[in-house]
Amino acid sequence: GQSLEQPSEVTAVEGAIVQINCTYQTSGFYGLSWYQQHDGGAPTFLSYNALDGLEETGRFSSFLSRSDSYGYLLLQELQMKDSASYFCAPDGGGATNKLIFGTGTLLAVQP
Amino acid sequence: DVKVTQSSRYLVKRTGEKVFLECVQDMDHENMFWYRQDPGLGLRLIYFSYDVKMKEKGDIPEGYSVSREKKERFSLILESASTSQTSMYLCASSSPRRGWRNIQYFGAGTRLSVL
Fold first, then answer.
1. Buried b / exposed e along B88-97 (16+ C-beta atoms within 10 A)
2. Which residues contact A58 (CB under 8 A, 6 or more apart)?
3. How far apart are the first and last CA of chain A?
4. pLDDT of residue A3
5. Closest CA to B7 of B34, B27, B28, B29
6. In chain B, which among 47-106 make CB contacts under 8 A with chain A?
7. What sign for the dihedral angle of Cα B36, A78, A50, A29?
8. Which residues of B touch A43 (CB under 8 A)?
9. Are A86 and A78 in contact (CB under 8 A)?
């Protein structure tokens, strides 16, 4: 079977650093992606890790450990506009590019 | 920029009506997806299509069907709408994996209310 776990809610203050963890279990695995969704908006792509290690894109970094079936999204220098839901989405592989989305993590950034 | 356009932002229908949700993408993507999003349940895959006239069931296909007659257009059909299908519906598209990244591009969503 497949499963996906990430915290339902995280709260942090402006300027802080926050880490959103994700553990997954899938029948196949090609990589781990992260999406951001603001309230009322569409999910938008943030990052994709195909290999173990850290990928950095500006204030956001994403990490993957394939052997542990674990990844995280790290947000630095938090801003109010980072308040949103964040979804980790394992890529189960195959030609159809299906991603497995879960319930996401609601991040609330407070002043 | 990739553009995925859903025909309606808000839709109100009555129980038993046949409902069509339309999605068009302008990037010549082979793959298209329909999700529904409900509070506490996240994004759940209803159907996806990997080519014209090709479709596969996702995790929650009951009560839905799809149509893909042209590459750029993917329609979700509620044969007989029920109140349990009140939800936010999101369409997405992607190209077959080239290199190492797999990115889905989403439309703005259609919020459907069935009364």
1. ebbbbbbbeb
2. none
3. 41
4. 87
5. B34
6. 48, 50, 56, 90, 92, 94-97, 100-106
7. negative
8. 43, 90, 92, 104, 106
9. no
pLDDT(B100) > 70: no
The length of chain B is: 115
Per residue in B26-68, pLDDT tens?
A: 999 999 999 999 998 999 999 999 999 899 999 999 999 999 9
Bridge partner list, B1: none
8-state DSSP, B97: P
B43: nearest CB among A30, A91, A101: A101
How far is the C-alpha of A20 from the C-alpha of A8, rounded, in Å? 10
pLDDT, tens digit, 9 for 90 and up, residues A45-86: 999 999 999 999 899 999 999 999 999 999 999 999 999 999
Angstrom distance (rounded) from CA B90 to CA A22: 23
Q: Letter for the amino acid at A42?
A: A
Confidence (pLDDT) at B49: 95
Give the number of other CB atoms < 10 A from CB of residue A49: 24
